[in-house]
Known about the structure:
By secondary structure, the protein is mostly helical. The protein has 10 helices and no strands. The chain has helices spanning 4-21, 23-26, 59-95, 97-111, 115-126, 130-156, 160-167, 172-208, 220-226, 236-263. Helix 3 (59-95) packs antiparallel against helix 4 (97-111).
Amino acid sequence: MRHLKAWLGIGLTAATLVAAAAAPWLARHDPLRADFAQSLRPPGTPGHVLGTDQLGRDLLARVLHGARLALFIGACTVLITAVGGGLLGLVAGFAERWPSAVLMRIADVQLSFPFILLAMTINAITGLGLRNIILSLSAAGWVVYARVVRGEVLSVKQRDYVQAAAALGMSRARVLFRHVLPNVAPSIVVVASLQFSQFIVAEAAISFLGFGVQPPTPAWGSMLSESRDFLYVAWWLAAFPGVALALTALGVNLLGDWLRDTLDPKLRV
């Protein structure tokens, strides 16, 4: 029972990954192929386990392929923000003085804007599409990594082994990547695991509002948006993408909490 939260997070995340990877085999229908003769079929219809949407497209296929898209966007965004924000935080924490001050003022200004609103604004300026939504989420999310890593670096670089390495004549770059980075890496992993679900939900919200992935590409947010006109006659159009999004976000969040408890020694005292 003590590890129930961890196992639940691992199970939900693993189930989402397996379902996304095996989407072509779990759902044999083309998620983009319309069949108006089969439109709005309820769940349990022969050949359509989760039913069909207003265009007769198989809902199971669209939900599973939507999982692939959501995980791809989340993974790419986490990778970009973790590398970019982490490097900026390392430089700001190790250099101090004006680079650190400038970076933190930029971070403070960016944090004054709501995350989803900022990402949606950037995406509206750069244009719609998969690449631009990844870039807009990355531009809005790097600041968390930069601030966390900078704070960790300010603490780590005062420790004896770092001071000894500098006194032995090691270059600043070697001290930074050899002795400082390995000690702040767990914090980056924890932030990445917690941010992953945020990026997935943000992408769904932006697509729901029409600024993200555009139809007919199967994305959970756009599927929820399309289902609004059919809520009273076809509840399954909103239920299954919504449940998939909620369970994926829940699983990743629980997994992130477990990683934080595992990798942070202060929480084990």
